[in-house]
Amino acid sequence: xxxxxxxxxxxxxxxxxxxxxxxxxxxxxxxxxxxxxxxxxxxxxxxxxxxxxxxxxxxxxxxxxxxxxxxxxxxxxxxxxxxxxxxxxxxxxxxxxxxxxxxxxxxxxxxxxxxxxxxxxxxxxxxxxxxxxxxxxxxxxxxxxxxxxxxxxxxxxxxxxxxxxxxxxxxxxxxxxxxxxxxxxxxxxxxxxxxxxxxxxxxxxxxxxxxxxxxxxxxxxxxxxxxxxxxxxxxxxxxxxxxxxxxxxxxxxxxxxxxxxxxxxxxxxxxxxxxxxxxxxxxxxxxxxxxxxxxxxxxxxxxxxxxxxxxxxxxxxxxxxxxxxxxxxxxxxxxxxxxxxxxxxxxxxxxxxxxxxxxxxxxxxxxxxxxxxxxxxxxxxxxxxxxxxxxxxxxxxxxxxxxxxxxxxxxxxxxx
Length: 416
Hints:
- This protein is α/β, with parallel strands linked by helices.
- Helix content is 26%, strand content 13%.
């Protein structure tokens, strides 16, 4: 395989960021602390496209919900009805396709934050995603991301190359910054082997080093090769999920499976980032069945498999879901929903104070809607993200996670 210097940086095989500031960070091995017990791990999951939080977690006790959603509302909870919402607390219920998440709720490992989102009023996917990842709503000039800042604020002398990993071809804005991060399309590409259709990592990386690419990798060619060797022990092609876990087919399920593999390989992962797409349901959204239900089913099945696969390791793992904004309260003429404002975000895992719906519910009667059409934001996403970073990852509360925003621990939702 012909591999150029630029291709190494931009291809899906591996993207390296922040190498200049720590030119030897890749040489550290798992034995230097990566496999230490009780390492806290965050999995940040971005539902790109603006998920309909009112269908994910249904306010079934709100009469106006059924009045304005004649064809896409999720039926009220009813015993024996597989298409009805799954009641949680008498007011909210899970979409029936999210049934695999019910055990999290029942074991108090799932916290729900409703009416959560950004104070910025944009309905542009691109801008809203950018603001959420940078952590600076309304400011387009921010170069780094909130997770990158969180890791930089918590130096770890035992950190390995795999401290922060994004599953994908490009590093997301959330992980950009001074802390080194990796973007990986498929961890099997790291395996040191030869053969048709595979990356001959030894030839590729060592050749780059021999050709003198210090201008791009700042002298880390051999260290990168060491990072490749760290994953060899994981044997990517032979990995079998534990405890009978079955991940759904597709990119999302495969990404979660590989994150579980990295965690169990003890390569030092602390933050993992992945995307889930297909949430922009302008037409034919469906209710208990249909387009949205299919996406939610895959989403929940993958998270359920991830939990089963990790087993006891989930005691130190928190999964945080996010989406750039929600959908309109009223369905449109195409039996879908348009770009809205607030949505729902989930926090699940062993350390979570679950079994509760957090945040102030603003109501969805006409006079309570944001701009007369949307669920209002009552929990700023920055307080939720900061709570997870500070209380779970151990990032100093004084760290500048969100420039220009005064964090108030008293405003943290209380999910962890």
